[in-house]
Batch of 3 targets.
Target 1
Amino acid sequence: MIPISEAISIVARETQLLEAERVALGECVGRILAEDIVADLDLPPFDRSQMDGFAVRAAEATEGTRLRIIGESVAGKGFDGDLGTGEAVRIMTGARVPAGADAVQKIEETRESTGTVEIRKAVTAGQNIVGRAREIRIGDTLFRAGARINERMIASLASFGYSDVAVSAAPRASILATGSEIVDIDRVPGPDQIRNSNSAMLSAFAAADGIRHRVEPIVGDDLGNLTAAISEMLSSQPEIIVLTGGVSVGDYDFTKTAFRDAGVEIFFDKIALKPGKPTVFGRSGRTLVFGLPGNPVSVAVTYFLFVRFAALLMQNAADPEMRRGNAVAMHEIRSTPKRDCYLPVSLATDDSGRLIIDSLRFTGSSDFIAFSAADALLYVQKGTTIAPGEVAEVCFLER
Ligand code: AMP
Ligand code: MG
């Protein structure tokens, strides 16, 4: 049995970087940037009005002052002249503030009559203006290579002309469920059967993580068939193969033997982790091979700790591990004597604004129903107990 940290180091050691490619902006969410994103212009590109109103000189625009309106500045067509003493320019939100003006008074604080405007409330220099380059300066870096692109970054990429972006190539994965009791989800299971929830879940995880993947047909507990299916998957040289099931020590658990028979070099097969102890990891050529325990929550935990980690690492992601944080335990939570635990929990905030752990009614690693309400995995070090009120470490499941 090896510690989790050692398992992670071994996975890292066996993982190679993928090449970069360019993808269209509309297809880049979830991918890892392979270039720094740089502003190709100042933003705002000019001193920009935040209000509909009048551009003025703050020093003379005191209450009751009447100014001559000499033109207008609208979004898309600014006023090109200079604003002189006693003058104002009508201006719209988003338009360029004319030279000579240093403030904008909003229309509600003015009164207009035949070619002049009365300032009804004094303004201060800079009021209602976002100065040129206040948001970002030309040449500044917005995002660094290694960042995962999310939906909130798209407006920035679009604004600086990135109609396509350099990202790491997407890892390719094959997903396979093994178990003689497993049936496809569109079937009604017989008395000794269960539906294949693992492949569907892994497929959704992979999609969210930008992994191109294929779900293979279910294989029963048969060494020959399993070895053949693994060899077949290896022949198409995906970066990742994920099997679920058949990694325990039962008479019909053939995954590890089938990996070996298919030529996979195994690096570990037992981790001091709960759930997920019998996780198998190996490699054949450039293909990383994971054998995850069959129980759905074990699959989820080991996917996040190891498979997603490898997939992100091969894309040169800056943060390949799960995002960690702290939350306050509400109940006592025990670990096991010899294994570190990652327990699904849901999170909430209390009246004083603390992030708190709402323990789930989690019955064990087969309990995918409890897992569906989880926001995070609570880390409980082996041999320890977290007391109510204690601050504990959590890994967030949402990305
Ligand atoms: P195993 O790792 O093969 O011993 O399986 C452990 C448990 O997970 C058993 O109760 C299996 O029925 C269940 N299981 C295995 N594979 C799947 C799957 N693809 N979908 C849902 N449950 C599974
Ligand atoms: Mg089984």
Note: Helices lie at 4-13, 154-159, 197-208, 223-235, 255-261, 296-314, 368-371.
Target 2
Amino acid sequence: MDLMKKVPVREQDPQIRATNFEEVSYGYNDEEALLEAKRCLNCRNPLCMKGCPVSINIPGFISKLKEGKIEEAAEVIALSSALPAVCGRVCPQESQCEGKCIRGIKGEAVSIGKLERYVADWTREHGFNPAKKAEPNGHKVAVIGSGPAGLTCAGDLAKAGYDVTIFEAFHKAGGVLVYGIPEFRLPKDKVVAAEIENVRKLGVKIETNVVVGRSITVDELMASGYEAVFIGTGAGLPKFMNIPGEIYNGVFSANEFLTRNNLMKAFQEDADTPIKCGKKVVVVGGGNVAMDAARTALRLGAEVHVVYRRSMAELPARVEEVHHAQQEGVIFDLLQNPVEILGDENDQVKGIVIRKMELGEPDASGRRRPVEVEGSDYVMDCDTVIMSLGTSPNPLIRSTTSGLETNKHGCIIAKDENGETSKIGVYAGGDAVTGAATVILAMGAGKAAAKGIDEYLSGK
Ligand code: FAD
Ligand code: SF4
């Protein structure tokens, strides 16, 4: 075995997986996980942990794995994370724990994410639940939103004895984990539902179909006996380009396109919600959400073009996702930007006008600024356009909660690292505070807020 290299992970064949919604990566089996675990040096100063936003004891759980004590490995992870099977699949490890792993200096980093996934899958498949229920402490807390921020905050509070109820607008809990990230990256029933069930087993109650701000307000929740509230409502409001033609039939936001497919299973013939995915689809944008929309459209049988205004080097999506999309047949049209969408006499999309770009000087983000190439416009025929240009928080909570301060982007302002807001007893975290970010950052914020709420209510 070459210790400089990761044990490779088996995946579905690209040609086959491009036609189905089953999970792309198979994960490690027992033998592969043990081999990979042995690559960990059990560093005295484990830099990997510094890269983990929830500070999982990485060498601690890998050591247990090496000894074959998988239940104990799961217990180590459970001290820091309520969603290990999710994180093992979707976290950008290359820029976090694995990005800091000492093995990465001369060779490839330890596959920390795949090992975390292995431990979480093993425990689920063997019916072992590492989280322990606590004695009630008599305090009631409301959590708004059941995404990774809300689930983590609720789970940590329940472990400290709080009586926690999550209020969720959708009919299913999980936030982006159920409505955004597709099945082929994150299986819903097998993985997400099982991890949510573990949070429920801690005593957390989840009330779905409750839109806070409409069904009940934050102020009313507090008046009805909840002593603290955590807001983890995410950033689900899509942005558009404001170019002519965005009103034509066949233009979707990536969020709507993915929600109809993931949550409402629109790709199945008997689904209540139809989705009209055409034969030639243009996805505008280059982030993880764009990759998910492109790969979903591909699986629905379309020829898919990702149109992105910078080059491959600036593409914000995870390297693994871009690689998978390319393998499956998604076409990348780089250094190009749409300027108009064209419609036919029935107001149905029939094409998109695209302008070529070149890279100029770096902008405030440090990435080279795209500059338009004069006279380069051309028309690409297509029947569907999916806009994937980022999202911002929905204004409902801020417009219905007294004394809650937000910034110019509509994000709730957290005064400190524990997510304390301008309203006493109200904490916030995740995408609702930062704008669209990552699962693990949302979990880190939920964890910090649980600590802040505990200190506030227990007077510590
Ligand atoms: P969310 O997950 O958005 O959850 C918020 C919840 O609050 C939702 O369930 C929503 O219905 C509910 N809610 C909103 N308003 C109300 C209300 N008024 N009342 C009651 N409930 C309400 N991150 C990664 O790390 N890796 C990835 O691979 C990745 N891929 C992504 C792919 C897609 C398509 C998308 C959209 C995002 C992706 N992300 C990824 C980002 C990541 O999913 C988010 O950063 C994360 O889910 C944010 O968690 P959250 O708990 O703050 O919010
Ligand atoms: Fe193991 Fe890498 Fe962490 Fe060191 S930095 S403990 S080798 S995972």
Note: The radius of gyration is 23 Å.
Target 3
Amino acid sequence: MIEAEGIVHRYPGFSLSVSRLAVEPGEVLAVVGPSGAGKSTLLRLLGGLEAPQRGRVHRRGPAVYLDQTPYLLERSVLENAAFGLRLKGWPAQEARRRALGWLERVGLSGFADRPARALSGGERVRLALARALAVEPAALLLDEPTANLDPANVARIEALIRAERAAGRAVVLVTHNLFQARRLADRAVFLLEGRVVEAGPAPGFFQRPADPRTRAFLSGEMVW
Ligand code: ADP
């Protein structure tokens, strides 16, 4: 669904270099690694928010990208949920009907007429997910979607991710939470200093990592 080939992207003092990375429909790919490894940069390149300085990213369908503090409009919850559909040209009434369906799926149906600014952190992420999913993207790129959220919201968002995978979407999940990566990932990638150290199917990646640096990171022994 998304394929990166030979990408190189540099910032002052940092370079990301990935020879090949792909995510397929119906698959959750977890990207793990220490802070500063280049996880968010990789996600932005996969999502087309930035173009790589070298190489190419091929997307076979529309992708949506969500960061951990999603931007919401100073409008009602329902208007936020319907926003992407309206942008795509859906008539107001149909956009509203679909958006209400998505609010129900993310557990926000009672919130439709409230101002979005009144939502808690977990509710904001769920609203941003509803807005993103309403346009039925082929791929979902999530940057730390559950950072700083309570366990109930974490569980809800993980359930949504599973449902999207079951619906055939390709999901790339950047997470610091290794337990979450184990719970959700079909495949995982360990990124360190802008390079892929190891990539492979879960649970092998988590239970029998081949590279000593992956082992050190997964066991919490890597100091950075
Ligand atoms: P991670 O998500 O793994 O924490 P990032 O992709 O955010 O890592 O950052 C990787 C490196 O690139 C860091 O050193 C960061 O400071 C740098 N970086 C990220 N975005 C930019 C940018 N827009 N301009 C300059 N440097 C950046």
Note: The CA atoms of residues 30 and 165 lie 13 Å apart.
